[in-house]
Fold this protein.
Amino acid sequence: MPTDCMPTALRWFAEYRPSTPAIETLRGLLMGDAIGNSAYQTIAWSSGIILVGFLGSMKLFNRAPNR
């Protein structure tokens, strides 16, 4: 699907999806090919996803109970 018709946030995610560098890194490591900078991109995406999940869970955990 062309990304030109997508909203900005969805277009950005479709162009820079986090699964592509992870797949390229795994494929390169298993096949013995060069992985380039896809390992660094995988680490950056994974760290970002973990950070967002951690901050979201801490916000939900520290909120006042509704009882």
Q: What stands out?
A: The helical segments are 8-15, 19-31, 38-61.
